Amino acid sequence: MAIVYEIYRQEQAALGLPLLAAEHPQRTVAWRQGQPVSAEAFLAHVQEVAALLPPAATAVNLCEDRYAFLVAFCAIAVRGQANLLPSSRAFQAVEEVMAAHPGCYAVGELALDTPPPHYRQLPALSAEPMADGLFAIPTIPAEQVVAIGYTSGSTGVPKGTLKTWGDFVASNGGNQRMLQAEVGTGFNVVATVPPQHMYGIEMSVLLPLLGDVAVHAGRPFFPADVATALAEVPAPRVLVTTPVHLRALIESGVSLPPLAAMLSATAPMSLELARMAETRFGAPVLEIFGSTETCAFASRRVTAGELWNLYDDVHLHPQPDGTQVRAPRLVQPMTLADIVTLHDGGRRFRLCGRHADMLEIAGKRASLGDLTHRLLAIPGVQDGVVFQLDGSDTLGIHRIAALAVAPDLDEHSIIEALRRAVDPVFLPRPLILVHALPRNETGKLPRHQLLALMGHEPA
């Protein structure tokens, strides 16, 4: 199998792969303020920005506007450079990534009050850039590293993962086939997730670059903004979001234009939430599974059952401490911390939790994911998480703790409700009520911030 992978990589490395899939210059790539941006105009913007970029190996792409990010992403790649994608745009996160890549610079569309070192503000991307009359699509070497994505830090220190253009082209094929089977070949995407996140890259950058898909330029956050953005693109519409954003949309009571599908990732989607969303908005809730290291490699319709469907050419091999992922597009097999059981000849799997989330106390087993699910199922709990604290007691057991957002409940009532669904050895002590959990832009919970709310310093 290793020989097959190596042959595949060598064949791909010799190819120059198109930056954009467009059979004609007027193919819509993006929507800005309700107006379409053609492939011709988009490529003119890419060339305009590429000509202004300094020589370097890497650049931090800080663009908030999704169209500006798309242009900068491609301009950086056309220059033979790699996009650095910090886990957030917070100053410290950007500073740490730039320190790890000496000589890099940063780009963005905004005039920042406190810009990072070597910051370049993009020119205004006019609606009708001057084109030279030639519609030439650039090619990128398959082996060129075009992005270095950093993990969220929800389980520890963020780490960078290199992505070549060949990697992205190959992984995008699985996402395209999955979505086309549900909504057809052409659709429009509105995304609530930032383009810097790997989920955002896959679903709001690669899809419009490599398929008959157009993306809305904004990143709507509040429910009314999501409704407005969806109204600015024609049907069929796909909403790329997270469980946190989806719950906020439902609870707001906002009306949305007709949807073809809702796509979720970054955190587990509960069956209850998926059913509520499908009933409220009349479209299927699809969930994708993957990681920064592997990109997406499986999907499911949440209300259709627990089992996930693997993408073509992806194979899973359960390990004692996780699951090995094999695919021709991966340089080498990648082991994830997720525990799975295989079904239907290995083409489907059930997710049992993460290795680090599995608990064993007094001969009994549970998972942090299941405990969190039971906490969230308590009426009145709006948000919550169960996790383990650093350090251990004299028996070597890490204490289980919980944070909950429940304005009309107290700690005692929540513990008593949990006691009816959870073995007493797994009851979280302490459980602390907070006004909000420290979720990042994609809804994940950085561990160091959870510990800080508990009054603990990371080990």
Number of strands: 27
CATH homologous superfamily classification of the largest domain: ANL, N-terminal domain
CATH class descriptor of the largest domain: Alpha Beta
Main beta sheet, described? 11 strands, mixed
CATH topology of the largest domain: Rossmann fold
Return the average pLDDT rounded to an integer.
Answer: 88
List the uncertain runs. Answer: 1-9
State the shape: globular
Count, helices: 12
Helical coverage, percent range: 25-40%
Q: Return the domain count.
A: 2
- In angstroms, what separates the terminal alpha carbons? 40 Å
CATH architecture group name of the largest domain: 3-Layer(aba) Sandwich
Q: What's the arrangement of strands in the largest beta sheet?
A: 3-2-12-11-13-14-15-16-17-22-21
Radius of gyration: 23 Å
* Structural class assignment: alpha/beta
Strand percentage, roughly?
25-35%
Notes on the structure:
- The chain folds into two domains: 2-305, 3-Layer(aba) Sandwich (Rossmann fold); 362-453, ANL, C-terminal domain (GMP Synthetase, Chain A, domain 3, 2-Layer Sandwich).
- It is built from twelve helices and 27 strands.
- It has helices at 2-13, 39-50, 66-78, 91-99, 165-183, 198-210, 223-231, 243-252, 271-281, 368-376, 411-419, 447-453; strands at residues 16-18, 28-32, 35-38, 58-61, 82-85, 105-108, 119-121, 139-141, 145-150, 160-164, 187-191, 213-216, 237-241, 261-264, 285-291, 295-301, 308-310, 315-319, 322-326, 334-336, 338-343, 348-354, 358-361, 364-367, 383-388, 400-405, 431-433.
- The strands form six sheets. It has an eleven-stranded mixed β-sheet with strand order 3-2-12-11-13-14-15-16-17-22-21, sandwiched between helices. Strands 7-6-4-5-9-10 form a six-stranded mixed β-sheet, sandwiched between helices. The chain has a three-stranded antiparallel β-sheet with strand order 18-19-20, with no helix packed on it.
- The longest helix has 19 residues, at 165-183.
- The model is unreliable at 1-9 (pLDDT under 50).
- Keywords: Ligase.
